[in-house]
Design goal:
The protein is mainly beta. The chain has a domain at 90-159. It has one helix at residues 23-40, and strands at 52-55, 61-64, 90-91, 96-103, 107-113, 121-126, 134-141, 146-150, 154-159. The strands form 3 sheets. A 4-stranded antiparallel sheet has the order 3-8-5-6, with no helix packed on it. The radius of gyration is 26 Å and the shape is elongated.
């Protein structure tokens, strides 16, 4: 039997010690490998630059441009707090972003690294002058790292993943 791939998935029976192996068993596997190689393509013409192999939701795939739909769902929901508290260290359960908003503060700082408490300043903002301002800063945080915000009125966490 020839391979069903890429039109359908093949199924094979497990061979055990003492079973007879025929040429069709080997040929079927070779057919599947060739079908996979054909789907992935060779040379410069298939796939072309800036194309990726994408599933279309029906079990088949096509070469195409990356678009926003390819990364939809990358962010979870904004979390406006547990509530989050300033000068408190938090362990990131996922990769994500911390955003801090400060009203009329002279400075706002986000620390993040593998230490508890974190000591590396990754993002900061400073008010120049005495005018009343609202400022915000945002910083990426790796899963497993700690993060801490200094001098914010509101803190948000935006996880990567749903």
């Amino acid at each position: 039997m020839a391979t069903n791939y890429p039109g359908a998935l093949d199924s094979y029976t497990t061979k055990n010690a003492g079973d007879t192996i025929s040429e069709s068993h080997v040929n079927n596997l070779q057919d599947a490998v060739v079908a996979t190689e054909t789907k992935a393509g060779t040379g410069a013409s298939t796939p072309t630059d800036n194309k990726l192999l994408k599933g279309n939701g029906t079990g088949t795939s096509v070469w195409g441009q990356a678009d926003n739909g390819d990364i939809s769902g990358a962010f979870g929901a904004w979390d406006a707090g547990a509530p989050w508290a300033v000068n408190t260290s938090y362990l990131a359960a996922t990769d994500g972003f911390v955003m801090a908003v400060a009203q009329n503060a002279d400075s706002i700082i986000i620390y993040t690294d593998g230490s508890n408490p974190p000591t590396t300043v990754r993002q900061s903002g400073y008010r120049g002058g005495s005018e009343a301002v609202t400022q915000s800063i945002m910083c990426p945080v790796r899963k497993g790292d700690y993060w801490k915000v200094v001098a914010a009125t509101t803190i948000y966490w935006l996880p990567l993943g749903t």
